[in-house]
Amino acid sequence: MRWQIPPKRYGASVFAIGSNDAASPDLTKKLRNIRARIIARRVIWLLPYNRQRASIVSSVAATYNDETLDLLRFPTRDQIHPSSYHLVARALLRPD
């Protein structure tokens, strides 16, 4: 699967990437390449339930001083997707 890079500027971007990918140096490279091409005032990464993948995503976010939201805060049935995206959206929309 090839990831698409949106070709414009954004006020905010939320990245939900990495949950379905193998934790590897290749994942780190892909995430860095995507992030380097995104122009946004605010970027928030959703950290996967899988701790190894979350560590990789968190590392890339830290490289760019981006925010993270850890999905472990939210219930899940399959350890990949939150049971309620509504709860995630509410957390994302909460003022700083």
Blueprint (SSEs and pairs):
Elements: E1 9-15, H1 25-36, E2 39-47, H2 51-63, E3 67-70, H3 85-93
Parallel strand pairs: 1-2, 2-3
Low-pLDDT windows of residues: none
| Helix-strand pattern | EHEHEH
Sheet having the most strands: 3 strands, parallel
Structural class: alpha/beta
Distance between the termini: 35 Å
3D shape: globular
Number of helices: 3
Helical percent range? 25-40%
Task: State the domain count.
Answer: 1
Strand order within the widest beta sheet: 1-2-3
Instruction: Quote the beta fraction.
Output: 15-25%
Radius of gyration: 13 Å
Averaged pLDDT: 90
- Count the beta strands: 3
Can you summarize this structure?
By secondary structure, this protein is an alpha/beta fold.
